[in-house]
Design a protein that fits this description.
The structure is a single chain. With 970 residues, the protein is an alpha+beta fold. The protein has 27 helices and 29 strands.
Amino acid sequence: MSGDITEQGVAVYAASFGQRRLWYTERLEPASPIANVPLAIRLRGTFDPVAWQQAVDVVVRRHDTLRTCLADRGGAPEQVVLDTCRVRVEVEAIPESAAPHFLDRFATTPFDPTVAPLLRMAIARFAEDDHLLVITMHHAITDGWSYGVLLRELSDSYVAIRAGAIPNPPELAVQYGDYAEWQQDTVAAGRWADQADFWRAELADVPLVLGLPTDHPRPSVRSSAGEAIPFVVPAPTAAGIREAARRLGGTVHMALMAAFQALLADIAGQDRFVVGTAVSGRSPAAVENLIGFFVNTVPVSADCSGRPTFAELFGRVRERLLRAYANQDLPLEHIVDAVRPPRDPARTPLFQTILTYGPHPLTELRLPDVELEYVAIAPSGGCHSDLDLIVYDDGKHLQGYLIRPATLIDHERASEWLAELLELLADIGAGVHRALCTNARPTQTIPAPETAPADAVAADGPRTDLQRFVADIWARLLGLDHVGVHDDLFACGGDSLQAIRLLSRVETGTGRSIGLADFLRTPTVAGLAALLATNPTAAETDSVPIGPSERIPARVSYGQHRLWFMQRLEPDSTTYTVPVAARVRGVLDLAALQRAVEVIVARHDVLRTRFADTGSIPEQIIEADFRISIRVEDITETAAADFVDQVAGTPFDLTTLPLLRIAVARFGDTDHLLVVAMHHAITDGWSIDVLFRELSLCYNAFQANTTPALPDVVIRYGDYAEWQRAMIEARGWDGQSSFWRTELADWPLTLDLPTDRPRPAVRTAHGQSRHFVIPAATTAGIRAAARRYGGTVHMVLMAAFQTVLAELGGQDRFVVGTAVSGRGPAALDNVVGFFVNTIPIKADCSGAPERPELFDRVRRNLLRAYTNQDLPLESIVAAVRPPRDLGRTPLFQTVLTFATDPCAELRLGATHIESHPVLQHTARTDLTVEVHDTTPALDGVVEFSTDLFDPVTVASFIDRLLEELAEWNR
C-alpha cells in the first residue's frame, strides 16, 4: 500500500508544534492508527481511475507535504521533503461484500511517519459504474481544511484531464515547511506574548477539571483507546439550528457549543469548566490553500451558572468563542505553558472534553457524471480527551461522532449522553429552548398563538422527520390514531414482541438497527428517534450478508433439521403441529377466502415445500404448482372439538405435501370456525401473523373486486436456511457461542420439580394441555408493574414463573427456556417459515429477592439473551455441552413463551373474529406455559408431560401462578 519512492534530493525543515505533538504521542503508542485520518467516498457513474491517478500525480507534485516524512534528529522530529515521491492509487476489483475488509485495510493500517508518502489512496471497483474511493493521510500532513483543499484540487485536475487538457496549476508561493519555520520563529521572538497573556487571564479562576461520571476508575496514565459512536442530525433539525444561530447573531458552531456545554453541565453537576475546540490555525492568508497540519485546539471557558435560557447561554458562548478565535495562533502546548495547570498524567491539561466542528470535505469534490456518497468510517485516532464530539456540516445535515474513552466510560452511558444531546439539538431546531441549571433543565417553550382545544393533540406530536417516521409505524402497529412523542410503548398497550416488530420495521425503513435493550431504556417515540439519530447506518455485523441463494434445492435450516430428526423417531406424532382456530361470526365469503389462500400459497415457497432425505442434510423441495383446497363441513357446534381434532390431530409427513391444512366448520350462515394446521417446519407464531395479515388483505381486496397490494418477497425461506448455515460455517456467531458457554458455566441445568410419577429413562412426547385466563384486573396489574419497573409484560410473567418454579422445586438457581423470533435481518420480516428459536434464560431467585430486585435480574438476563438469540438452540447445546440425559430436554425442562394473539392479524370483511383455544395432546418439555397477549385479559395454555404430572397437579400449579401474578401490582 506504500507508494514508490525515488529520491533525487531532499529539503529539511523544522517540524511544526502540532507535528511535534503527534511525534511524541506516537512514541507512546507505536504501530497505532492513532494519527490516521481516513475518508471514504462511494462513486456511482462514469469514473476514470487512470485520469484520477494522473490528477493525484499533479497534486502531489504541487504540495510538499504530500512528499514529506518526519525524521528523528536527536530525539526531536524534522520534516524531510522529497523532490520526487509518487502516490500510487491501488485499484482492486472486489465484490461489494468485501468492502468492509477493504476499508479496514486501507483506513486503519498504521503509517510509519519516517517513510514517505504519508498519504495512501485505493479504489475498489464493484462494477464498471460503481467504485469506492478511500483516502487516508497521516495527521502530520493534513487536517479537515486540508482535505477540502486536496479534494478541490483533485477535482480540478481530474476534470481537466478528462477534457484532454494538461493541468498546470500555479506554483505555491509558500509551502508547509515555510509555515513551520515561521511558526517557530514567531514563538521564539515572543510575537505571540500578548496571546499568552490573554490565555492566562481568560482561564484565571476557572475550574480546569470537569468531573464527568465514569463507569470505571480513572487509570493513573490516560489511554487514547476509544469508541466512536456515529450520529446524524436530520436536515430539518439542522436547518432549525442554523436559523436559531442566525437569529441570535452567531454560527452553528456556537449553537453546538452551547448545547454541548449544557449537556456537560447537567451530567457533571458543574456549571463552570473548560471545553476544548478546534480552530483552523491559518491566520496568515498565504497558507489558506496549503495542505498540512495547521489545526489548533484552544480552551473555551463554559459558564452555565444562573439557569441561563438557551439565548443567554448562546450569548455567553458567542462572546468566549470570538475571544478565542482572536487568540488562536498560540499553539496549545504554549497555552498550557502560559496557564501552568496542575499536571495530571491521568487527564488532558486545561480541558477534558473537545468539540470539533467544520465543513464536510466531500462538499469540495466535484466529478462530472458521478454521484458521490460519503461512506462513514469511524475515526481511528481514538479519544483525545474524556469525551470528544466531532461534527461535520455538509450544508444540509450535521453528522459526526461522539468518542468515548474505553477505559473510563461504557458504551451505554455514552449513548445515553448522545441521545440527550440530540434531543437538545432537536429542541433548538424546533424552537423549544431549555433553561439550565445543574441536574435539572426546566423547559421554556417559545409562546405559541392560542389554539382551540382540538389542537392540543398536536402539541405532543412529532416534531422531527425521524419522530414522525417512528410515530407512524408505532400507531399502525398498535392500531392507534395518535401517538405522542413521550408516550411509552407499554403504556400504549405494547409488549416486547411488538417492540421487536417496531424495531424491525424501523430498520427496514431506515437501514438503522437499534438494540432492544437500548430501546427499553426510553421506550418512547422521542427516545427511539434519538437512538436512530446516533446510529446513522445499519449495524451490519453479520459476516455473511443475506440474499438470494444460488443453491437449489436449499438445505434445511438447523431448526428444520431438528424437526426432521424428531419425526424420524416418532413418525405418527403431532408434537410439532401448529394449530390455530378462530371463531368467525358474520357472513364469510368462502370463494374469496379460497382465492386468497391460493395467492398466499403461490406467494410463499415454504407453503409448497416438502423435504427429501439426501443421506446427510435433508433438502427443501419446492413444488412449482400446488394448490391448497379449503375443507368445508356443515356441523353442529357440539361437534366442534372433534372437527378441530381431525384437522390438527392428524400427523403430517414431512416428505409429502401438503404441510398445511385449512378447514372451515359451518355452524350456520353467519357462524363459522376456521381451523389452520401447519407443520412447525414451515411456520411459527410470527409467520401465522404474516399469513393472516396477507390472507386478510387478499380476502378484502377480492370482496371489493380489486387487486391485492402485497409487499415484494425478495428473500425466501430457503435463502435464509442457506444463510444460516453459511453464518455457522463462517463462524459468524462464534461470539454468541462464547457468550452462552460463559452465561451457563457452573449454572444448574436441571430443575427437579415434584412429580406424580418417576421420570422415565427416556422421555416421550406424551402430554396434555390446559387452558387458563389471567383475569382482567391481574392483567392490568401486570402491565402496570412492567411500566413501573421499566420492562415488559414478558419480564413480569417470567419473574412470576421463576418464583413459582423455585418454590415448587425448592431450588433457587436453574434455567428456563423462552421463545425468540430468530429473525435477525430485517429482510426476513415478511417471510413465512420456521425462524423461532428457543433460548435458555438463567433464573436466579437466591437470597429471597423482593419483586423489584427479581425483576431487575430477569430483565438483565433476558436482555443479554435477546442480543445472542441468533445461534440455533442445537448450536447452543453443542457449545455448552451439558451432561446428556435421555429422560430430560437439555439445558432446560420448562419453557415460558409470550406471544401475540394468534388471530390478531385476521380481519375478514365485516366479520367478528375471536381466537378459539386448541388443546394439544403432546408435550415438548416437562412444563411449557404459553401466554397470548389478548385484551382485556391475557390468555394462556399450559402444556405438560403426562409421564410426570396429573391434570390436578397442573391445575394447582396454574392457581399458584395466578396468585403470584396477582401480587405484582400490590
